[in-house]
Design a protein that fits this description.
Structural class: alpha+beta
Low-confidence stretches: 435-449
Distance between the termini: 55 Å
Order of helices and strands: HHHHHHHHEEHHEEEEHEHEHHHHEE
Strand content: 5-15%
Number of helices: 16
Shape: globular
Oligomer: single chain
Length: 449
């Protein structure tokens, strides 16, 4: 007779460590930990976070910042959107415990600890941690920063249309509709009738200038990807079109026009690549053989030409002129009927320069590549990374999470090129896109055709 498996009534008081069941073999997170250690990730983030911790406190020792950022990376790779879910996953998995360097007898950080650390560290720290992901990509010459594409996507905010409040008098949307229903001769206490009235009234209009969400004032009213209207945020990515790596990421108001400050965001992406080169140069000066600058980062090789690529939503004469001033060649799709500026010679020249680049063979190829590479980053970070609907409130909190998701996204590209897999799913499926051979500090990779 088959017996059902049950836990023993009285477990053993003492168990030899060798008899404890552990994860066998190398897992995705073991390889990720090895790569992060080789890049000095732990020491780098501890140095960045040190100014925000005090050595004079006599309480419980703080959670290692390396552990905190690794837990957020787990959220990306395991498609977990909430900090509660991340904490539960880290507590439950033996391989992730080993990734965090937590023994089975230790308690992993809970979700409230993650919230406390997020509030403690400023957004600048997350930006610099994100820049660390460009170092290995830059050293391996996987990114050049010479052809960059920009685009934006909307995602759902942790806010509800039903709980909107008026800027003018602080009145809720429900009370406002009840007043309109009463003025139209409908019983305001009849919920069904009030809802029907609100759905069918002809002069229905909700604007961000009049209404806001008290739960997340930074969220804006707008359409989701499926067309339904909701409270949303906007994320804008700048991508290296050669590798698909993320160079810069910004969380912006959902009602902001794409063309606004487009030149500034592209210039920021160029600066982040230069910052990654500075980090590599400092490592090289310290005698670290890993810190060698890539060939295209050598000042003696000449000034590199950067081309900024965007769709027609980014076409604006003022922004095109700013792009040219910052040394970036514009390649922005042009809406039908758009004319050059008649009042500014610089804007007119930038308009014609953009048109010439766009009509060139290289420009057409870059516009096609932009739609592929940039949209892929949104698919991985928002959809497969669990961030299409955020559980956080406030632009700053959401931006902090996006920076670490961008870090993990870049590391997945590096892992795919070096090890042949970039995600947990690919590792478990045995996917390999090439053969990797390591000769000491040198990594040789043959890609499969």
């Amino acid at each position: 007779m088959i017996r059902s498996k049950q836990l023993p009534v009285q477990p053993e008081f003492w168990v030899h460590r060798d008899s404890i069941v552990t994860v066998k073999g190398t897992t995705f997170y073991d390889q990720l930990a090895e790569d992060l250690d080789r890049e000095g990730f732990g020491d780098a983030v501890r140095k960045l976070c040190a100014p925000y911790y005090s050595e004079k406190t006599v309480g419980k020792p703080p959670v290692d910042p390396e552990v905190y950022f690794k837990m957020l990376m787990v959220g990306f790779f395991d498609r977990i959107g909430s900090e509660r879910g991340i904490a539960a996953r880290c507590e439950d998995s033996l391989s992730i415990r080993r990734f965090l360097r937590y023994d089975i007898t230790e308690t992993t950080p809970n979700h409230s600890t993650l919230s406390v650390i997020r509030a403690r560290l400023p957004e600048e720290v997350y930006t610099e941690v994100f820049a660390l992901s460009l170092k290995p990509l830059r050293r391996a010459e996987l990114i050049t920063g010479e052809k960059i594409g920009i685009d934006s996507s909307l995602f759902e905010a942790n806010a509800s249309l039903e709980k909107l409040v008026r800027h003018e008098d602080g009145k809720s949307y429900r009370d406002y509709i009840k007043e309109l229903a009463a003025a139209a001769g409908i019983d305001p206490e009849d919920t069904e009738a009030v809802v029907k009235f609100d759905r069918t009234r002809k002069d229905k209009k909700i604007s961000n200038q009049e209404w806001y969400s008290p739960n997340d004032p930074d969220a804006k009213i707008g359409p989701r990807k499926d067309g339904a209207w909701d409270m949303t945020h906007k994320v804008e990515n700048v991508i290296d079109l050669d590798s698909g790596a993320l160079l810069s990421i910004e969380v912006q108001p959902a009602d902001k026009a794409d063309s606004t400050d487009m030149a500034g965001h592209l210039a920021t992406a160029v600066e982040i690549v230069e910052y990654a080169d500075q980090l590599l140069e400092s490592e090289s000066q310290d005698g670290d053989s890993k810190g060698a600058l890539p060939t295209n980062a050598n000042p003696e090789s000449g000034q590199k030409t950067v081309i900024g690529v965007g769709d027609k939503g980014y076409h604006k004469n003022e922004e095109l002129a700013l792009l040219v001033e910052s040394g970036i060649t514009p390649c922005i799709a042009e809406p039908a009927g758009r004319e050059p500026s008649q009042s500014s010679k610089k804007e007119a020249e930038a308009f014609h320069a953009n048109r010439a680049t766009r009509h060139s063979e290289q420009g057409r190829k870059l516009l096609k590549k932009r739609s592929e590479k940039v949209e892929r980053s949104f698919c991985h970070i928002l959809d497969h990374g669990g961030a299409r609907r955020t559980t956080l409130c406030g632009r700053s909190n959401i931006a902090k999470r996006m920076f670490i998701s961008g870090f993990a996204f870049n590391w997945s590209i590096y892992s795919w090129n070096v090890h042949g897999y970039g995600t947990v799913k690919q590792f478990r499926a045995g996917n390999r896109n090439g053969i990797v051979v390591v000769f000491g500090p040198i990594i040789v990779f043959w890609a499969r055709q």
